[in-house]
Amino acid sequence: MIDLHTHSIFSDGVLIPSELVRRAEYKGLKAIGITDHGDSSNIDFIIPRIVALATELNSVLNIKVLPGIEITHVPPPLIADTVKKARILGAKIVVVHGETLVEPVADGTNAAGLDANIDILAHPGLITEQEALKAKEKGIFLEISARKGHCLSNGHVAKLAKKTGAKLLINTDAHEPGDLIDKNMAKRIVCGAGLNEKDFEIMQANAALFL
Ligand SMILES: [Zn+2]
Ligand SMILES: [Zn+2]
For residue 59, how many other CB atoms are within 10 A of its CB? Predict the structure, then answer.
């Protein structure tokens, strides 16, 4: 199991990154992305620290740690520039916190994320078909989320991905230890979104492209 979207105490997660990684390793994960919430006020603080820790941990552990960032509640006109800064700082995974049903994410966030140089549009809520097509064209992954609330539109996201050919990932968006899941649970969540076990394998192969 590869999970490319998690949070540590560098934003609103409860674990320091090393414990998050250890718990993921114990859960049987092959790789984990640490993608704390960021805007231009904190990305220069977060990203270099996660990059440095990932380098250390990757030299001694079997689980692979991928440093990233989740650009969160940044006004749409500022997203592209924030993404550029995150890349320069060394983020290997750039996620945009999409228009989830359960938060007042600004309209146009999905579209601005898809226009920028991002890797993953997380929990994109009621993403439109045109936006899903853009994700496919640009090779940006859409997320099936294991997180409560964010998962409410999983079926819609899965359906549009099937229709447009946009590629999917399954991520936990873990903020605490109990949010991490094993492969079996991930498969069940994927099936719960109306997809099947083969789709799950494809989604994990998509995640492996980040290794
Ligand atoms: Zn998010
Ligand atoms: Zn998140």
Answer: 7
CA distances from 174 to 33, 56, 115, 161 (A): 10, 22, 26, 23
How far is ligand 1, taken at its centre, from the CA of residue 95, in Å? 8
Tens of pLDDT, residues 31-79? 999 999 999 999 999 999 999 999 999 999 999 999 999 999 999 999 9
CATH of region 15-208: 3.20.20.140
Rounded to the nearest whole angstrom, what is the distance from the C-alpha of residue 146 to the centroid of ligand 2? 11
Residue 106 banded pLDDT, cuts 50, 70, 90: very high
Query: How many angstroms does the Cα of residue 6 sit away from the middle of ligand 1?
Result: 9
Tens-digit pLDDT profile for residues 4-15: 999 999 999 999
CA atoms within 13 A of residue 163's CA, in its CB half-sphere = 14
Instruction: Select from 55, 49, 93 the least CA-distant residue to 71.
Output: 93
Q: What pLDDT sits at residue 55?
A: 98
Decide: pTM greater than 0.85. yes
